[in-house]
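quick one, two chains, predict together pls
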Amino acid sequence: MICHIIRSDHFGAWGMADFRAALVLAVLVAGTGCALASGPIKDGPIRAVGIENEYANVIQQIGRRYVAASAIESNPNTDPHSFEASPRVAQQIAGAALVVENGVGYDSWADKIIAAAPDPHRVVINVQHLLGLPNATPNPHLWYAPTTMPVVAKAVAAALGRMAPGHAAYFEANVARFDASLKPWYAAIAAFKARYGGTPVAVTEPVGDYMLEAAGADIETPFSLQAAIMNGTDPSPQDVATQNALFNAHKVKVFVYNQQVTDPLTASFLDLARKDHIPVVGVYETMPTPGYDYQSWMLAEVQALQRAVTAGISTQSLLGGK
Amino acid sequence: MIGGGFFGNGPVQVALLIGGGAAVVSAVVGVFTVMRGQSFAGHALADISSAGGSASLLLGIPALAGFLAMAALGAGGMEMIGARQIRERDLVTGIVLGAGLGLTALFLYLDISTTSASGAANTVMFGSMFAIAPGTVPFALGVGALALAVSVVLYRPLLLIAIDPDLAAIRGVNARLLGLLHLLVLAVAVALSAMTIGAILSTALLIGPAAAALRVATRPVWAIVLAVTIGLVATWGGIALAYDSFYWTPGHGWPVSFFVVVIVVASYAAAGPVGGALARRRATALPAPVSGFEPGG
């Protein structure tokens, strides 16, 4: 074991260049008997938790080798809205120096655990508060908004910089890199909006709505139906009939389907869409893994949307073999 | 009152059919259930069936099949333990009920934590009448018709057991077998209504219309007819009100289950005075009061 540098357990998210850089650094460190090690490296990386794995991914991209970020909600087959915390999760949060949570009631259980293990040194970033959104914000899926993550990345860098002042410039540089890496996604959204703005789409729930709005799509599904599906309450028959008609009358070009909240009703919509040859695009509450980081995931969603509109091709799942 | 498009609305059509079927079967079975003093068993079966409903989400099988299998299993379990005295029967029922709800807790937890069925608890416990797949209709109505047919065949012996168990025993009626068959029909009724107004509330549809009808009617046949009428009015009225409620608070329809239960409770409350007035009229019109229920009505 070469000091703690290679201990950062997120090689999967690293590019090859990062890997090579780390290797070079590791050899250097080994040669100098760990003389380079300083700050948090001596005690191991800063432990951070992203309640949803997309936030953990961004923390890791900003902190890189000085941070070990872990996620609590990362199973693409379950619905984070109804997550129940376990003692192991409580331990994970209690041991973290930095926590990023979504807010808007999406992960309110985390607040209770954070309050149960008070630590004056722990920094908690609540994305809702960071963005100045009211509690009554109807759509909690903030990470689909193109404007959200740059703000989160900046706040994460500031928090990490206070914990390890010696590396503040390094974290800032990673923010700049992160922001630059979002450009292909922004470009894809802008290109879609320019060519296919006003495309009518149906959805199951508002998970991808912020991105669809940014791309200029017209969401035809009544919001009350989206909310009923999101919250697991009784849908109104009017809304169900409206949604059925969107498919049967071919009023929509794409069906954006949340992979993580399904029930017999959403399954019946999926059947209708297939029967009426309306292409389906899968969206997620948490980052689908393995194979994606935040940027590539978002870009893949827009590309899937584009393929659906231009070629009528469904991308129901972003994960292979499904 | 009913807004435009009510009868042309797909989810409403499915709800009217399955809800109507559930109301009829529940009312017919409910009359015998109330007369036999098995209301608690009926309630227990409904709650036990919720374990099947939640398990079906986990296994990916049709919800009705899950509700039905679990209710039948519960009915068999209660009859197998088979306590004779009412007090003991309540005890056994309570214990089987507890076991069923414990399983429900486990299955709902597994549904929510390992699958994407986030609305599982709401759907299983309180029903989701407008989210039933149209393909369920033939199966649901078929099962309901079968249960009704069994009820018709068992009508006379069931009535005899309900009114005079001792006489039934002398006449050689197999009370054990009959009890089991009745519980199985009961299981069908609660499974159907659990699908529509939810496991917790299906008792309302089973007991309410029957109890209200028995407060008014003096003959079993009329009690059944009246119970069916009340059940249908409650279910279809509830569907119509839920449909209409969409326009009261824009975009937010109120749950059907709520309206169904409100109408059921109102009928029971109204049945008291109506039944009393009818009894007084009969007492003044006829010299001798009509005796209790006679087998065969």
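The CA atoms of residues 158 and 272 of chain B lie 26 Å apart.
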